[in-house]
Records
---
Amino acid sequence: MQTANTSEGIPAQMRLGLLSPLYLRRLFERMGATYIKLGQFIASAPTSFPAEYVEEFQNCFDRAPPVPYSEIESILREELQRPLDSVYEYIDPVPIASASIAQVHGARLKSSQKDVVIKVLKPGIEDTLVADLNFIYLVARVLEFLSPELERTSLVAIIKDIKESMLEEVDFRKEAVNMEAFQRYIEAMGFDRQAKSPFVYQHCSTKRVLTMERLYGVPLTDLDSIRSLVPDPELTLVTALNVWFGSLISCESFHADVHAGNLWLLRDGRVGFIDFGIVGRISPRTWAAMEIFLASFATEDYNAMASALSEMGATGNDIDVDSFAKDLQNIFSSLQQELDTEIIVAAARSSDAAAVSANVVVDERQMNALFLDLVRVSESYGLKFPREFALLMKQLLYFDRYTRLLAPSMNMLRDERINITSNKHTRRMN
Ligand SMILES: Nc1ncnc2c1ncn2[C@@H]1O[C@H](COP(=O)(O)OP(=O)(O)OP(=O)(O)O)[C@@H](O)[C@H]1O
């Protein structure tokens, strides 16, 4: 079987030294916003980059020193074009969070006295991104010119893709539109007593400033706090899954970054979705194949899985479905054995929350490895998946993690309470 997307083309000394995944990841973290985002893009695109790099960049740390509050204040003034004390009663100068692109401050609105958070784009970020990305684009063009072989891997196309997705992230009007569309979907589907996303205050939001309702809650991985808020954590998970799966088909875009920092159990018992900076869009054709893929995943029907994956990964070649199915089965059965052992160990110590969490982390790594194996084997049959597939799978891995923690005996793809496909024919909302 031929291997695809490996780092074999990179000389061994380089793989161990300057270009080693670990070194490169740390270097990217030090080089700032563009490279941190580039690292995150690599982590989310196993269909385009070697597995060791995808794995390493999953640890890419997006925390940056806070920008002094005086600078944040100037941006707010410039953007809102009004004295700040006419809009906000109070702004906490100590940020809640500071990442490479944005900084978040707690505040209170003047008019309604509502608690809000203000997400502010850090100064000079767009210029830095554009300059860095133009430079990277130029280097890619030169490399393709010098080594036409590289053109096959469509380096320039990848950089273009990265540029588009990064520039979307620095326009908070897009994030506001995504958030409002999601909230409309929640209301239209009658989920509003079970879930919510923050309300956007348009009168104090611009391209660089997003003022939204402040939510109070705990991440879906904080089992102890969740138990103190709701009697049945399993139901919280079922809600989160139904809302998210429903949005895949009924919403223009889906939340494509449901890590525990962005998915909360709120104090009122609802599930809160925050941070709509990264969203995905899925074509009806990919979704139809994805449905078959998920069903086959649940029933371990490897022939159906092979056909669904072939449908999703554009290729002109005829695929030997039987042999592809056997390769898939091999990957899954070796993983299943490891997982079973892990679960037995965790179950034996289930009163120990730390042991269960540690186990979940192990599972997450294994599930990532499973996905990378899946991509590797599929590519060896000439399949090339759309990025949406990777984005979707990544979210499923997060949900798999929550399931192991909140409802260890539940099978999220087979549970009758979870509607993965029932909204299939619902018209998309904008
Ligand atoms: N509506 C909100 N209510 C309460 N806290 C919020 C809200 N929005 C953001 N935060 C806080 O600010 C942090 C960062 O916000 P957000 O996730 O939108 O930014 P980010 O830079 O995209 O971060 P990340 O990459 O970690 O997801 C969140 O983890 C959360 O603690």
---
Amino acid sequence: MTLEAIKYDEGSLQILDQLLLPFKSEYIDVKDTEGGWNVIKKMQVRGAPAIAIVGCLSLVVELRATHCNSTKELADFIQSKLEYLVTARPTAVNMGNAAKYFTEKVQRLASDDGMSVKNLKKIIMTDMEEMLAKDIAGNKAVGDFGADDILTRSNKQPVCILTHCNTGSLATAGYGTALGVIRSLKNRDALKHVYCTETRPYNQGARLTAYELVYEKMPATLVCDSMAAMLMQRKNISAVVVGADRVVANGDTANKIGTYQLAIVAKHHDVPFYVACPTTAYDSTIANGDSIKIEERPSQEMSSINGVPVAAPGIQCWNPGFDVTPAELITGGIITEHGLFKPHELKDKLGLINGSKKA
Ligand SMILES: CSC[C@@H](O)[C@@H](O)C(=O)COP(=O)(O)O
């Protein structure tokens, strides 16, 4: 078994089929953007950062076999493929942010008269290939900032963490976001225990996070989502740390369904609640969480497990894949690769960082 969700080498892209985990380790060849769109839609690869990386790398693979006669033709081709990839899953913003960034870049470079088709292709492909290393570096920084803050609160005493969904190596290029914070705590010998929720209905916690925790030999226990309140009442939880699919301007955060109720329970028990995500999950164009589009998944994903029915035939199902945690419940803060911010600070602080990068 392996934890390498994305294998990429010089134009060859393979993804670990996460629908088969934890019982089978099988890779799928992704040969073009249609293949990329399909593995994202079916959730054979999932997790906001991994979705964007696989989407863009599927375009790199396709670009290698694509001939364009002009830089304008190439830029329009890349733009249309990126627009298509964004439609696979609507809530996670990472693919949308990548599409915006690469569209702006390719159209700007294409308008330069001295640019050749060959060079333009190379610049964009190299930039996309670098997403893998950049994501890991960002995750490591997130992990360290998160561990610093949690250990400051605990007076450097080892901590018990509750996490939700899967935010580890399988959801990213490696290391992980919320699971990256947990990994950083473990690296400092400061992780007493980690609890992961099952994460119904798709069981990313039971299938994927539990698999990563066992693989990494972390002291870990699986709980049902419905046990979170009891857990916080009885088990001395030091912090809840989750990932994000989209953090909007006021700090409201869309993440895996079930996150919002964890934040409410954490507030009731005075447990700090953290969102851990690189800024690739930040969307400054939406003012607050009411306008985030929430993906609704097929009802069979809820009414059956691995094809075995678990609900009464004929019952209707409502299956939103994500919920929105209001900023005021994110009491620990939002941990980014630039540091930890309170939700209300995010807009100004990230605006300053982005502004100074441009200057
Ligand atoms: C680093 S991943 C953060 C989030 O993307 C994760 O918690 C999550 O909600 C994933 O949802 P999924 O539907 O499995 O793609």
---
Amino acid sequence: MDAVWMLPLLLVLPLLLWTSSTFVFYFKKCFYVAYMMLLAIIAIPICILKSGGRDIENMRVIRFLVSHVKYFLGLRYQVSGWEHLQTDRPYVIISNHQSSLDVLGMMEILPDRCTMIAKKELIWAGTVGMICWLGGIVFINRQKTSDAKNVMSDAAKTMLADKIRLWVFPEGTRNQNGGLLPFKKGAFHLAIQAQVPIIPIVFSSYSNFYLRKEKEFKSGTITLKILPKIETKGLTADDVTPLSEQSFSVMRSAFMEISSQTSQSNGPSTH
Ligand SMILES: CCCCCC/C=C\CCCCCCCCCC(=O)SCCNC(=O)CCNC(=O)[C@H](O)C(C)(C)COP(=O)(O)OP(=O)(O)OC[C@H]1O[C@@H](n2cnc3c(N)ncnc32)[C@H](O)[C@@H]1OP(=O)(O)O
Ligand SMILES: CCCCCCCC/C=C\CCCCCCCC(=O)OC[C@@H](O)COP(=O)(O)O
């Protein structure tokens, strides 16, 4: 008798859970972390067999394996400004940083021989940490500024010789409060020390599909705008502040422009 009553409940419960936006939020987040960990397990032996260890060429394997994850999460990317990446030279990419989901957008447009600057804690993120190390990610200790500066100066010295491009988040941390946090200086010292251009890239706001506080994670389209390069040839350490201000200003305008467009094309946000 009891079992008969349980049957409709068992059928309705998954439906209720599926329609609950909080459930979808946690489900998608857990899926994302677990699936990236799994992809990393697949990527680790491929990278070791192909390159024998830590090598920036491993980023091709990572980019390929990550490129379909967006479909599972209902995310799409609209990219403009591809032409600004079409150069053989090394450069420093700077972009805004809203969430760990940024990795999906990065892998959508990642140029060849491009790796990232990341906080050193990431190396302890299980198989994901291991794949970051294999992909040549440069780890910095944000608590020890002098160490971080030394690591970035070393990177500036090898960028040209090894034809390496570096992706830096100049805000220095994740930020989802609308707009951009004030920029840290490391990315600009790096570009000036290496005498390579800066290419700013802006991700539109995630606030119309991903809200951490409200526990919402809907489908959405993200606009990625690749901006024209900013040259640093002939600049010195004295030019870091104006260079950082110029970059901040072009990125903030682009962020405002594409974030309002994206939220319009996705329909009115509920928040
Ligand atoms: C296949 C399956 C795969 C599965 C999953 C894996 C998928 C993909 C793998 C890839 C994933 C990678 C994702 C990577 C994302 C990681 C994101 C992050 O970790 S963001 C956080 C770390 N990044 C940063 O912090 C970078 C930005 N920060 C800086 O650049 C900072 O400036 C600093 C950390 C270097 C220093 O910090 P701080 O002291 O707080 O900052 P400032 O005020 O900017 O600097 C103090 C003074 O020092 C001067 N300065 C700074 N840098 C330099 C330098 N290089 N050389 C000389 N001087 C420097 C600066 O000018 C300041 O002095 P002042 O007199 O005030 O001007
Ligand atoms: C056994 C260890 C378990 C660890 C679990 C964590 C694993 C994460 C797994 C999958 C997510 C894939 C994306 C990984 C890249 C995330 C990079 C990132 O966004 O780091 C945050 C950092 O930029 C800023 O951090 P703070 O906001 O300053 O703090």
